[in-house]
Design brief:
Strand content of chain A: under 5%
Number of strands of chain A: 2
Shape of chain A: flat
Number of helices of chain A: 3
Strand order of the largest sheet of chain B: 1-3-2-4-6-5-10-11-9-7-8
Helix content of chain A: 25-40%
CATH class of the domain at 3-255 and 462-476 in chain B: Alpha Beta
Distance between the termini of chain A: 44 Å
CATH class of the domain at 5-42 in chain A: Mainly Alpha
Strand order of the largest sheet of chain A: 1-2
Structural class of chain A: mainly alpha
Helix content of chain B: 25-40%
CATH superfamily of the domain at 3-255 and 462-476 in chain B: Amidase signature (AS) domain
Strand content of chain B: 5-15%
CATH topology of the domain at 5-42 in chain A: Histone, subunit A
Number of helices of chain B: 15
Largest interface: A-B, 52 and 74 residues
Largest sheet of chain B: 11 strands, mixed
Oligomer: heterodimer
CATH topology of the domain at 3-255 and 462-476 in chain B: Amidase signature (AS) enzymes
CATH architecture of the domain at 5-42 in chain A: Orthogonal Bundle
Distance between the termini of chain B: 18 Å
Radius of gyration of chain B: 21 Å
Radius of gyration of chain A: 23 Å
Order of helices and strands of chain A: HHHEE
Shape of chain B: globular
């Protein structure tokens, strides 16, 4: 199967990206080439194989339910594009 | 002997014997960085470096400190450094002053090292040539028309070009080993979970691992001693005791069984690279090791598996870069969606966008089983191949990269670039430690030998590499300077 430019536009939107006409053309070609590479995996029999999400078979650690982090909000907000009253500001969503 | 050709072990002795001070050492390196045209550094932290050098000298004068006290290094710009720009090679983070230290940064500070600056890299560590950096490509010190490799290209060029004594790197699919190979230095990717990922900007979280890039295996052992260890701030950090990685360097390799995967020597491998790699293997045979042909039957599938798994993880990890809390924000967004769309589209480079889109597609409803789940299953098969191999052999050897460094700008299509990662990807998919050590030259460009070991066998790999470096002088070669 092969992705159309329309589908690539939709994938870009899912990832919150926009593409110029030239980028759309290039990405359609490149994404199809990369997915073509992925098609090779179809040749392997994997019905009874467990998926491997993580290289080490470890269980997630638990820790005591106590506060370990201090409040760093001033520091963290000092590098934000726009803040006000301790909030991160974005364009108005609801009038 | 010039100061910048010396190893950590040699410099530490020089500092102790008062042949030079850390301030003098640091000034020497800062001058070389200033005169360099390799584009290895994104940020030079000269004031901080001088302050750290001064503090180190005071400590040395009191007879205190460690072997790393006062040693200058280059830090990959993927590690957060409090108060210092941490860009990950991206326009997206060009204005990002990290509000905290990565655990690795903290550990190196604790060891009294001197940070010369933050080094160049492919954007968000996505690339094999360092050409994907917002700050421009890095040049290979051996031939400035060539790529240094990637993504830790700035780190490799800094060490090979005598701009720092050692460097940090990260390796998601070969990003320590491949640039180490192409620049003729020693690079170690430890077992997944050995070094903390806290504060190391994530690309693909189940594959990313940090490690040292150095002149010698002995230096790599010294730096790994400082970097390795359990970190409660990283939920995937391993609760595994840290040995002294320098303790077994002098063990004999007599009786070592080396596995050569036949799949690593098939078509696509440059003849001259193959010859240099086999000469290195013969060197080990002369030292009393035996060689056995093995098979990693699924290794050809490492490329499609990696280029599904890694983009899926990156599309998720990079979703947090949205122009709201930190990083790049577009000018005059007309609404929230415009802010997201334009901040991301203007902030990310072409390769990052490509991988985000592949990941978004492979994880989307209706395609998840065909791509992501399938790739996770083949990842399991690749890992099983190694398990079987390590029942028969102690270490696996082969090439790092199919060719030596290629010309800047010569590989234009992404798939051709991905295919060159064939020998490095599988160690990341399995989570195994791997190294690249200098093993010869082809057309005046360095060739690396790859070592892959079993889980937690870093000591063994460093021992094997050190024994090779006692017998050869490839690691002592330095590029000629104009």
């Amino acid at each position: 199967m092969s992705l159309s430019e329309e589908q690539v536009t939709q994938i870009a939107y899912l990832a919150r990206l926009t593409l110029s006409d030239a980028e759309l053309k290039d990405n359609t070609k490149d994404l199809n080439a990369i997915l073509g590479l992925a098609e090779q995996l179809g040749a392997i029999e994997t019905d009874d194989i467990e998926p491997m999400a993580h290289p080490l078979h470890m269980t997630q650690r638990l820790r005591a339910d106590v506060v370990t982090e201090q409040d760093h909000s001033d520091l963290f907000q000092s590098i934000a594009p726009k803040t006000g009253n301790k909030h991160y500001l974005v364009p108005t969503v609801i009038e | 002997m010039s100061i910048h050709t010396q190893t950590i072990a040699q410099l530490a002795q020089g500092l102790k014997d008062k042949e030079f001070s850390s301030v003098e050492l640091t000034q020497h390196y800062l001058k070389r960085i200033q005169q360099s045209d390799l584009n290895a550094f994104i940020t030079v932290t000269d004031e901080l470096a001088m302050a750290q050098a001064q503090a180190a000298d005071e400590k040395i004068a009191k007879g205190a400190g460690s072997i790393l006290t006062g040693i200058p290094y280059a830090h990959k710009d993927i590690f957060c450094t409090q108060g210092v720009k941490t860009s990950a090679g991206s326009k997206m983070l060009d204005n990002f002053i990290a509000p905290y230290d990565a655990t690795v940064s903290h550990q190196l500070n604790q060891a009294d090292t001197v940070m010369l600056g933050k080094v160049n890299m492919d954007e968000f560590a996505m690339g094999s040539s360092n050409e994907n950096s917002f700050y421009g490509a890095v040049k290979n010190p051996w031939n400035t028309d060539k790529i240094p490799g990637g993504s830790s290209g700035g780190s490799a060029a800094a060490v090979a070009g005598g701009l720092s004594c050692f460097a940090t790197g990260t390796d998601t699919g070969g990003s320590i080993r491949q640039p180490a190979s192409l620049c003729g230095i020693t690079g170690l990717k430890p077992t997944y979970g050995r070094v903390s990922r806290y504060g190391m900007i994530a690309y693909a979280s189940s594959l990313d691992q940090a490690g040292p890039m150095t002149k010698t295996a002995e230096d790599a052992a010294i730096v790994l001693n400082a970097m390795a260890g359990f970190d409660e701030k990283d939920s995937t950090s391993a609760e595994q005791a840290v040995p002294d990685y320098t303790a077994n360097l002098n063990d004999s390799v007599k009786g070592l069984t080396i596995g050569l995967p036949k799949e690593f020597f098939s078509e696509g491998l440059d003849d001259e690279v193959a010859t240099q790699v086999m000469n290195a293997v013969k060197e080990f045979e002369a030292m009393g090791a035996t060689v056995k042909e093995i098979s990693l039957p699924n290794s050809a599938y490492a490329i499609p598996t990696y280029y599904i798994v890694a983009p899926c993880e990156c599309s998720s990890n990079l979703s947090r870069l949205d122009g709201v809390r930190y990083g790049y924000r577009c000018d005059n967004p007309k609404d929230l969606e415009d802010l997201y769309l334009r901040s991301r589209s203007e902030g990310f480079g072409a390769e990052v966008k490509r991988r985000i889109m592949i990941g978004a597609y492979a994880l989307s409803a209706g395609y998840y089983d065909a791509y992501y789940l399938k790739a996770q299953k083949t990842r399991h098969l690749i890992s099983e191949d190694f398990k079987k191999a390590f029942n028969e052999v102690d270490v696996i050897m082969g090439p790092v990269s199919p060719t030596t460094a290629f010309d800047l700008g010569s590989v234009k299509d992404p798939v051709s670039m991905y295919l060159a990662d064939i020998y490095t990807l599988s160690a990341n998919l399995a989570g195994l430690p791997g190294m690249s050590i200098p093993a010869g030259f082809s057309n005046k460009l360095p060739v690396g030998l790859q070592l892959i070991g079993n889980y937690w066998s870093e000591s063994k790999l460093l021992n094997i590499a050190h024994q090779f470096q006692l017998q050869t002088n490839w690691h002592q070669q330095m590029p000629q300077e104009n």
